[in-house]
Amino acid sequence: MDVLQVLQFLLLGTLIGILSGFFGIGGGILLTPLLLVFGYEASAAIALSLMLTLGSTTAGTISHIRLRNVNVSHALWIGLFGIVGTWIATPLVFYLEGVDGATLIISLVYIALLTYFAVSFFRSKQHVEGSVGTDSVLRLGIIGVFAGFISSLMGVSGGFVLTPLQVKLLNTEMKRAVGTSITAALLIVLSGVISYTVAGAETNYLHGLALIAGAMIGSPFGAKQLQRFSSQHVKKALGGFYITVAISVGLNLIGWNTASLALLVTLALLFIVTLLIRPRKK
Which residues lie below 8 Å from residue 111, measured CB to CB, with a gap of 6+? Predict the structure, then answer.
């Protein structure tokens, strides 16, 4: 057992967990492209990312329920429909990997979705603080299936699409969308982990457990910091976060791996420093 590698994955899980708890994402949105930069096979990278997100969404769900940021009925509907999406996507990933197309397709989907949602955040209107959103099983189902599919296709919790889709389609206030997203994502990610395990994805489970432990340390801290900021501030910050990750994935796609990695590390460090030096709600 390489103790140093385990400690590195523990630290990585903690840092990503902080972002996860704050933004209502599982963390795979950062870890999957990072592992692809390191040369992991797509299925192995996705399996490890889903293990990370299992830890971050578990801890994040507990924290956001305590903070009363969760619409439980919405989370359950989205999560149940999301399970369907995860089982549709898993065979597709293994097929693409077999024809050497997984990394390219996943990277392009990342860039397209991140850019779209970033722009929508910058252009979106102000929502009333505390708004729980519209009750529509059809819309909740569409959001859930799409997020579940994206989750297993890209090794993410689905939170990075769940949050903006709730804001856009359900008119949910940002903080409540964040809490509901990470709660729904818990069901989606659990299904994704099971589907990849059943499909026989090769991964290092010790590294996965280190990521889970780190995420469970960092996620509650990130969730608690959310209360310091207004919904509009969180929305703009998430838009900037998405754009930066999209650029990083693009750099990796054209072979600029070092620049891609440096951008992701810089993004994470700047975010954590911001949390430490800006304690007041704006």
Answer: 246, 249, 250, 253
| Whether the predicted model's global pTM rises above the 0.70 cut | no
How many other C-beta atoms are found inside a 10 Å radius of the C-beta of residue 119? Answer: 13
Name the amino acid, one letter, at 140. Answer: L
The H or E element that residue 201 is part of is none
Question: CA–CA separation, 107 vs 252, rounded Å?
Answer: 9
Tell how far CA 181 is from the center of its chain. 10
State both tokens at 188: 């989606």
Give me the phi and psi of 171, to 5 degrees please: 60, 40
DSSP-derived 3-state class of residue 61: helix
Neighbours of 120 (CB within 10 A): 16
**Rounded to an integer, what distance in angstroms lies between the CA atom of residue 276 and that of residue 99?**
46
What is the rounded distance in angstroms from the CA atom of residue 164 to the CA atom of residue 53? 18
Which ranges constitute the DSSP H helices of the chain?
Answer: 3-23, 28-37, 42-66, 72-98, 102-123, 137-154, 159-169, 174-199, 205-225, 231-253, 257-277
Query: Are 148 and 82 contacting, i.e. CB atoms less than 8 angstroms apart?
Result: yes
* Ordered per-residue pLDDT tens for the chain, 282 residues: 578 888 888 888 888 888 877 876 667 777 877 787 777 777 778 778 878 878 878 888 888 888 888 898 899 999 899 888 888 877 776 776 666 666 677 778 778 888 887 887 777 655 444 454 566 788 888 988 888 888 777 666 677 788 888 888 888 887 888 889 888 888 888 877 787 777 776 777 788 888 888 888 888 888 787 777 777 777 788 888 888 888 888 887 787 878 887 887 788 788 778 777 765 554
